[in-house]
From TrEMBL:
Record-stated family: Belongs to the UbiA prenyltransferase family. Protoheme IX farnesyltransferase subfamily.
Secreted keyword on record: no
EC number(s) reported in the record: 2.5.1.141
Protein name, per record: Protoheme IX farnesyltransferase
Source organism (scientific name): Rheinheimera salexigens
Amino acid sequence: MLSLSRSHDFTAKCKDYLELTKPKVVALLVLTAWVGMMLAVPGLPDIQTVIIATVGIGLLSAAAAAMNHVVDRRIDAQMARTYSRPIAKGRITSRQASIFATSLAVMGFILLYFAVNALTAWLTLASLFGYAVVYTQFLKRATPQNIVIGGLAGAMPPLLGWTAIAGEVHGHALLLVMIIFAWTPPHFWALAIHRRADYAKVNMPMLPVTHGIEFTKSIICLYTVLLFVVCLMPYLVGMSGAIYLIGSVILNLRFMQYAWRLKLADEKTDLAMKTFKFSIVHLMTLFLLLLVDHYLKVSPFYVS
Ligand code: HEM
Ligand SMILES: CC(C)=CCC/C(C)=C/CC/C(C)=C/COP(=O)(O)OP(=O)(O)O
């Protein structure tokens, strides 16, 4: 009986530690890093480097997420969406979470530095710093442009994947970064509209709190148009072909439709949450399309 309850406690602790790492967010970040790795070379990249880089980038991203939980523990405890998080609820102490996050970060950095390359290790560490310190500690609390500037850290993984394989920064990798950079504001502000009361309660200067819901909806519409244009770039520079172009146009028209409907909807609808959820499907599908397109190039449609 005693050992049964011990194993239950252990499983619950593991679940809490896993929650600290924001596993679904990290899964999507790693997918985008993966696409960066695959697109960095014409054929298949070295599989051993792919595996080590995936683990290294994943560990540093998970460490950044856990650090975000430590820094935000007080505001998390006051918001309906986050009040039951492990540190906010006291199931894990800040000290335990900090040791956990630091261990993940050190392991990830060592893996990348010694088994991949120094450039990737430093760039990934800079992304961790950008998210856990610059965004979470400062920007988040300072300006409604917090997620625009801070979004750069979350947009880095395709570049990290690319440098892991190619050992250098390439313009094509920067295009992939720009796509996620332009995607982040509609992704987050749709959720922030839905959770406006939460953010207002803890005095976080998120755009819907500082500039109102109507203004935020208009800016979301503008960003989906910008995203549409940025997403054309891989085709226009000859990096991707027809499969990507067609898929990307469909996905972005749909995102613009969500944004437009959200703009016209009244506040009682759940369109903000639907737009947020669609943003995740959008980015995942877009990156999978880049991958499929890379391996099934339909040459007649290429701009070269
Ligand atoms: C500064 C940039 C970003 C901000 C402020 C942001 C904000 C958020 C927030 C607040 C949530 C939580 C929703 C919830 O708890 O229900 C969320 C969820 C999510 N975000 Fe982001 N995000 C950013 C960048 C990214 C990036 C770069 C990715 C991946 C490439 C990403 C992928 C996801 C995913 C997959 C979820 C769903 C998680 C779940 O269902 O548990 N986000 N985002
Ligand atoms: C090494 C590397 C690539 C680092 C990037 C790591 C990372 C986890 C980026 C995702 C961005 C994200 C989930 C922001 C939300 O934070 P929030 O504090 O606004 O949201 P919350 O209230 O849900 O915690």
